[in-house]
Amino acid sequence: MTLEIIRIPVLSDNYVWLVHEPVSGETMAVDPAIAEPVLEEAKARGWTITQIWNTHWHPDHTGGNAAIKDATGCTITGPAAEAERIPTLDRMVAEGDTVMLGAAEARVIDVPAHTAGHIAFHFGEDQAAFVGDTLFAMGCGRLFEGTAEQMYANMRKLEALGDATRVYCAHEYTLSNGRFALTVEPDNAALVERMNEITAMRDRGEATVPTTIALERVTNPFMRASSVEELAERRAAKDAA
Ligand code: FE
Ligand code: ZN
């Protein structure tokens, strides 16, 4: 199985991911903030969107649900714990459930903290994880509806997906995250090197995601926090920065 995964930049810094499974011809949009550029991208590729998967209820992840469903008749899957806040959901899922995109199977992982019911989707065979606003390149989501303890547990779950796993996050926050990470670990050589790389990439107008679990394990101050307390301190410091 080789999924085709297309990045669609929308709004100021969101990424919508369009995922195409070539055997069945199914196409799925992850967290469509808005509809139009997502429908256009699919059309340009000759694809029809059959599914939407939502990681959490925030409007910049679900705002395009209704219009894409109207245009395509797709089915929408999202977190059971946030069903009341995502009225367009057809299927509610939680940890341990599997969701199919054609022949490709994804497992649902509960990653509460940014929102209380936040989930991630992991395609095991393709080694791809869609993590919404839980894990970013060198960062993590703000703790709007959850605790540092939950986010610490989320980091353990995500790092356990393995180094080769590509991580598809929902925002381009890398530069700001990296600047903060350098204040935490100024002597981390892997971090210094990565910052040089991504600074050049941003100067060229390039996207810096997806990232990988391997890269996050060596450069992400939240994944690298050695305790709940340390993660909480770093999250508070980043929020205040
Ligand atoms: Fe969010
Ligand atoms: Zn977001």
Gist of the model:
The protein is of the alpha/beta class and 241 residues long. The protein has helices at residues 36-44, 59-62, 65-72, 148-159, 174-184, 189-203, 213-219, 228-240; strands at residues 4-10, 14-21, 26-30, 49-53, 75-79, 91-93, 98-101, 104-110, 119-123, 128-132, 135-136, 139-140, 166-169, 211-212.
Features:
Metallo-beta-lactamase, Chain A; 27% strand; 8 helices; single chain; 33% helix; alpha/beta; 241 residues; binds fe (iii) ion; six-stranded mixed sheet; globular; 14 strands; binds zinc ion
Description:
With 241 residues, the chain is an alpha/beta fold. It has one domain: Metallo-beta-lactamase, Chain A (4-Layer Sandwich). The protein has eight helices and 14 strands. The strands form three sheets. A six-stranded mixed beta sheet has the order 1-2-3-4-5-6. A hairpin with a 3-residue loop joins strand 1 and strand 2. Helix 5 runs antiparallel to helix 6. The chain is globular and about 50 Å long. Bound molecules: fe (iii) ion and zinc ion.
Summed up, the helix count is 8
Largest sheet: 6 strands, mixed
- Averaging pLDDT over every residue, what do you get? 98
Distance N terminus to C terminus? 43 Å
**Strand fraction:** 25-35%
Based on Cα principal axes, name the global outline.
globular
CATH topology, what is it called? Metallo-beta-lactamase, Chain A
CATH C-level label? Alpha Beta
Can you list the ligands bound to this structure? fe (iii) ion, zinc ion
